[in-house]
Design brief:
Length: 783
């Protein structure tokens, strides 16, 4: 008895069909002995791992009384029925299988991306989430900088992007207490998986923002033992190294990762470097107590090469803007002001799970983080230094019943930021003109009841109550003598400003109701839907700011603290998902009615950088993800071709006031990624991929200037495992297309009052060049 690969099959039952009685079984070499009369007989071969097979043989007498037949059995595909197990092992760090099972219990759009740093570059969040439906990431400079992350239109106006999504590491907040974040510090390469919860589907973490939450799950010594060394190199001086090691000893386990990278960048003033140290130690005190301590240190330092005019981008995307050269171009003076960012974050956290009874678990999480951040703005001629600390605690109780599950939670976080504004003179901190003490406090209560009416129909109800405080205190020593600087005259002067202190409080109650219906013979075709509300208070980046006069060669001459309304919305969503052996999909359709949307305004001419609340907008769209294995056993046994695709349709527009009917700037209406991969049984792989924005996108709310459509192609090839090694080579934008990957978002585009009639909006720098042709190679060694 043989497989198709001609490997012997032991323990195959052999019986005569005429008698339906068991006769014998095959030995370790696939042979069997069967004594019967001469003539034709039908033999029945059965094995739990192979399909039932019948063969007719002719038995005749010969000298040896032996007959030789080669009989091949086909492997059986077994579709396992999904079973929800309530008696799960208590763990402060759930396994990947548990995480995937939890997502099937959420009545809305979510996804889980499994990280495979051995066979791909995972330097940026876009590398990690490129194929996740509904996630739109627009790169600024192609490195560990500040890509614009948007989920359902969240935070689309942030330049740089710093709000709209709740970032977590192992379920513990990474956002600062005011809701802002530095996206470049996240390191997907050290994560086992990354979860995406869209909108109010993130209520399990107490989050109810329009964009939802993104959770990075760390590797642990419990699930990822061993030592792994990885080295990467690539175009434009890219180099990266990573050491990961994990182990477990009885009830304890530990994991440590150290990584660093640097790159010269494809543009002038585009250097960047990054370092991450992450570790965790877990200990299972008993079957009822499991605890884990986390330590993370992140350091990033990158330059901001800034925007170009579209003509400059098409002529030479590697150049930088050098200020104003009328009537040819107008934009920030990157060469003089040297914009960039340098930030450090140190985080300590603990997560402990308690089992009070077979039906009741409580999880307690606490964290503390220190922040040190220096940001040199590319538009407003100032530098911003922030030092701060955040702390928080969350308690979640879960009680399981015969037909349902009740979850109750509480979160508290608070933080303080000391922020100083300095005049920027040639990229250096000059005189201080502002000093603020910023304090944020957040209290959140939430509850969820998940009721199972049957194995097919589930109904889930949630409600969240939240209170947020945003208090800014102007502690500048002498508000009447705030310095400003003119780059034209190279002289300092003073401006007067009242003390800008303001306390603000925001409250909301956010209900949600949803359902899950498990269809199909094996109940593995899910349909879901929900109606929910979301809520987002402004961050200090929106509440406290500066602006200059019409002369953009002067540092800020006005300092302000403003009152803003909270952003809120009502969202309706329906969708379906399936995960099978040959194909799967994840599809959501949604519509959000947004009130008082927080949109940031930037204007080169007026030197403005501020946020306004827009009364009524609509966010609606389609999020489609699919994977299929259309071909198997093509050239060799067990080789295959797989296809995966992601399409996000975003239709966001103003539904009232001056811009009624206009599209919101910031997110492309159509965004697609796709890949076709061939994989051989010896783990060699080759894939071709594409990323496309097939339709132009407005960069301003008056819809006068547009980001052109583009499509770029790439490839990836390598071997998943050869002995202890993994290897890959990756190419991006292999046709070397010049395109705008992102842009500066504007409310409306104004032209300066200058005597140059040929000067138009085409001469203003708005567009960020996408990375040109780039190659990467990586080698991983595992012990």
């Amino acid at each position: 008895m043989l497989t198709k690969d001609k490997e012997a099959i032991a323990n195959v039952s052999v019986a005569l069909k005429s008698t339906n009685k068991f006769a014998t079984t095959t030995d370790a070499n696939g042979y069997f002995k069967l004594f019967t009369s001469e003539g034709k007989h039908t033999l029945v071969f059965s094995h739990m791992s192979y399909e039932l097979f019948e063969a007719t043989v002719n038995i005749t007498e010969n000298e040896s009384n032996k007959h030789y037949y080669e009989i091949y059995l086909k492997e059986k595909r077994i579709e396992l029925r999904e079973v929800a197990i309530t008696g799960q092992t208590l763990s402060s760090a759930p396994s990947l299988e548990t995480i995937k099972m939890q997502h099937k219990m959420i009545a809305g759009g979510t996804s889980v991306a499994v990280m495979t740093p051995e066979v791909q570059r995972l330097e940026t969040i876009k590398d990690a989430l490129k194929y996740e439906p509904g996630v739109v990431i627009q790169e600024f400079f192609g490195a560990n900088d500040q890509p614009r992350l948007s989920i359902r239109g969240s935070g689309i106006q942030s330049n740089p992007q710093r709000r709209g999504v709740y970032l977590l590491q192992d379920g513990i907040p990474v956002n600062f207490a005011d809701g802002s974040f530095i996206i470049g510090v996240m390191d997907p390469a050290i994560s086992e998986s990354v979860e995406v919860f869209k909108g109010a589907n993130a209520l399990r973490y107490g989050a109810a923002t329009l964009g939802g939450a993104v959770n990075f799950n760390s590797r642990t010594g419990r699930y990822a033992p061993g030592i792994q060394l990885k080295a990467e190199g690539g175009s434009f001086g890219y180099a990266q190294g990573n050491l990961m090691m994990g182990n477990h000893w009885g009830k304890a386990d530990g994991f440590l990762s150290v990584s660093g990278s640097r790159q010269d960048g494809f543009r002038q003033h585009n250097q960047n470097k990054k370092m991450n140290v992450a570790g965790n130690v877990g200990y299972r005190f008993s079957s009822n107590i499991d605890s884990r301590i986390y330590l993370n240190y992140s350091y990033i330092n990158f330059n901001v090469p800034g925007p170009l005019t579209m003509q400059m981008l098409l002529d030479n995307p590697t150049q930088i803007n050098k200020g104003i050269s009328l009537p040819y171009y107008m934009g920030p003076n990157i060469e003089r002001d040297k914009p960039g960012r340098e930030a450090e974050i140190l985080r300590f956290a603990n997560r402990t799970a308690f089992r009070l009874s077979p039906q009741t678990d409580i999880t307690v999480s606490a964290y503390y983080q220190l922040i040190k951040d220096r940001f040199v703005f590319p538009v407003v001629l100032s530098t911003q230094r922030s030092t701060g600390n955040d702390a928080g605690i969350s308690i979640q109780a879960e009680h399981r019943m015969d037909k349902g599950k009740l979850t109750v939670g509480f979160l508290e976080s608070h933080g303080n930021i000391d922020r100083k504004g300095h005049i920027n003179v040639n990229g250096l901190d000059s005189y201080m003109f502002s000093k603020d003490n910023l304090n944020a406090v957040n209290l959140t209560f939430y509850t969820e009841y998940h009721h199972r009416f049957s194995e097919r129909l589930h109904v889930i109800g949630n409600v969240q109550a939240v209170n947020n405080e945003r208090n800014s205190e102007d502690v500048f020593p002498d508000p009447e003598l705030r310095p400003w600087y003119s780059h034209s005259s190279h002289k300092y002067r003073y401006f007067y400003s009242y003390s800008q202190s303001m306390d603000q409080q925001f409250r909301a109650v956010n209900p949600r109701i949803g359902f899950i219906y498990n269809a199909g013979k094996n109940r593995d075709f899910q349909f879901f839907g929900n109606v929910s509300t979301s809520y987002e208070p402004p961050t200090f980046d929106e509440l406290v700011g500066t602006k200059v006069t019409e002369n953009i060669n002067t540092s800020p001459k006005e300092f302000f603290a403003i009152k803003l309304d909270k952003q809120s919305s009502v969202t309706a969503e329906i969708g379906t998902r399936h995960e099978g052996t040959r194909y799967g999909w994840n599809v959501s359709l949604y519509r959000s009615w947004v009130k008082d949307e927080l949109l940031e305004i930037k204007d080169f001419v007026l030197g403005v950088k501020e946020t306004k609340s827009y009364p009524n907008t609509i966010h609606q769209g389609i999020e489609f993800g699919a994977i299929a294995v259309p071909f198997e056993n093509i050239f060799r046994t067990k080789d295959k071709i797989s296809v995966r695709a992601m399409y996000t349709y975003s239709d966001f527009y103003f539904s009232s006031d001056d811009y009624q009917g206009n599209k919101l700037a910031g997110v492309p209406p159509h965004y697609l990624t796709a890949a076709v991969e061939y994989k051989s049984p010896d783990k060699l792989f080759f894939s071709l991929n594409a990323e496309s924005q097939p339709q132009r996108s407005p960069i301003d709310h008056t819809n006068t200037v547009y980001q052109p459509a583009f499509t770029i192609f790439g490839f990836r090839a390598g071997i998943e495992q050869w002995k202890n090694f993994s290897f890959y080579v990756e190419g991006k934008n292999i046709l070397n297309k010049y395109y705008a990957s992102s842009y500066i978002i504007s409310d409306q585009i104004l032209l300066p009052p200058i005597p140059f009639p040929e000067f138009t909006v085409d001469n203003v720098a708005f567009f960020m060049p996408g990375q040109t042709r780039t190659f990467y190679v990586g080698l991983t060694y595992k012990l």
